# Entry
Amino acid sequence: MPTAVKISLAFVCGVASFFALMALADLIASNIGVPLSVDYGVTLTVSDRYGDYEDDGLTDFGYCVTLLALMCAGRVGMSVYHLRIDGDLSKRQEMLFQAWIAGLAILATLGALIFLAFQDVYSGLGRFVQFSLKFGALLAVFWAMKTWYDQRLKRLEKIAGSDALD
# Structure
């Protein structure tokens, strides 16, 4: 198959899978009562000490789900291009991909739970607790996925050698 055709087919499959995954995510989000984004009704410009910026309205759950969909769509495109289910990734790259997918899925779940727990809290202290929980979850998930990746990498290097992972 010519390279231009493979690239075009991989691109179309990746984009189509992204939109399909986002439609599925929107369906799931509406069923559990956690929005992917917040519609403010107007363009919201936020000013703080770092400058002015427009708020896109994505929730933490929305950010994580969007990144998950982008990563999975990219993987579909790679698989179509290489005509291999593994997308021609090395074992090391595959483990890193799995760590990112697992970490984002956990963060999306925690973000949804925190959103549901604090959706009717408007006090300064409540917002601070919500932010602290989100930040703590981010750090904990990063640490857990990094630890998992490092331990699995060491175990596989011991079994197969470092050359087998590339």
